[in-house]
Amino acid sequence: QVLLVESGGGSVQAGGSLRLSCVASRYSDSIRFMAWFRQAPEKEREGVAQIDMYEFNTRYADSVKGRFTISRQNGKNTVYLQMDNLKLEDTAMYYCAATYNYDSLLRATDFTFWGQGTQVTVSS
Question: DSSP character for 112?
Fold first, then answer.
């Protein structure tokens, strides 16, 4: 069972920035994709960004393109989500996810392992 631990959430004013981190451990060498999802109250969980840990390809939700950047630390099973120009609607619990699957379309069903989440709150 892969263990995912997120950090970096917090409160920020609109237009500000935050960086989330996710460290994967336990049987993590075979992870193919890591991703960030978010879930706001009374809304479905949505994919935000994913990265292919072997080929470094990335995929983003349209709502965050140009504002969020997913990256990985070389040689480490650690991914980051740099969030810039944050908006009120970015407020949510953010979850790190991972999968051994060879393909992913950034759907929750594509991912097997999940972190506990870190809260991001954007205020005006």
Answer: -
